[in-house]
Specification:
40% of the residues lie in helices and 24% in strands. With 166 residues, the chain is an alpha/beta fold. The strands form two sheets. It has a six-stranded parallel beta sheet, with helices on both faces. Strand 5, helix 5 and strand 6 (112-115) form a beta-alpha-beta unit. Helix 1 runs parallel beside helix 2 (34-42), helix 1 (13-22) runs parallel beside helix 6 (121-127) and helix 4 runs parallel beside helix 5 (96-108). The longest helix is centred in the middle third of the chain and has 13 residues, at 96-108. The protein is globular. 52% of the residues are buried. The model has no long low-confidence stretch (mean pLDDT 97).
Length: 166
């Protein structure tokens, strides 16, 4: 089992993080909204007060954010403090340019990363039946697949960075 930082615990991220916790993973979650933190705690997620607290010691960082600007800002905060060798997984549905820019920064800092937007809505998030379209290198995809399978039923490798979004 892994220690997972989960950033973005809203309508989609909260249930996704809860499914990871139910699957036996240690999940530390961060969100700007206290109500989202409280709901995630009820599902086994340990709420923390900052991105740095979530990421500290985590082997995997998962994000579920509203749009490209938020993903860019969060990864600008994550990359400098993430553990060496951590796998970065952005499940947000964002623009292709943002996904590729974030992956380029992560790669330059020595991290493997995938963009893995989802289909299936809040019901799929709650029931761990999401479909993931994953962009990233083969090694990063192989590392991400076991984690994604705890949140969804169908995981499709769509090719290189940004191709999950495309």
């Amino acid at each position: 089992m892994a220690t997972i930082a989960f950033i973005g615990l809203g309508n989609m991220g909260g249930p996704m993080a809860g499914n990871l916790a139910k699957a036996g993973e240690t999940v530390r979650g961060f969100d700007l909204a206290k109500a989202n933190l409280d709901a995630a705690m009820a599902n086994g997620v340990a709420a923390v007060s900052s991105i740095a607290d979530a990421v500290n010691g985590a082997e995997i960082v998962v994000t579920m954010l509203p749009a490209g600007p938020q993903s860019r800002a969060v990864y600008d905060a994550v990359i400098p403090v993430a553990e060496k060798g951590a796998l970065l997984i952005d499940c947000s549905t964002i623009d292709v340019d943002s996904a590729r820019a974030i992956t380029t920064k992560a790669s330059a800092a020595g991290f493997e990363m995938v963009d893995a937007p989802v289909s299936g809505g809040t019901v799929g998030a709650a029931n761990a039946t999401l479909t993931f379209m994953v962009g990233g290198g083969d090694a990063a995809f192989a590392r991400a697949q076991p984690i994604l399978s705890k949140m969804g039923k169908t995981i499709v490798h769509a090719g290189g960075p940004g191709n999950g979004q495309a």
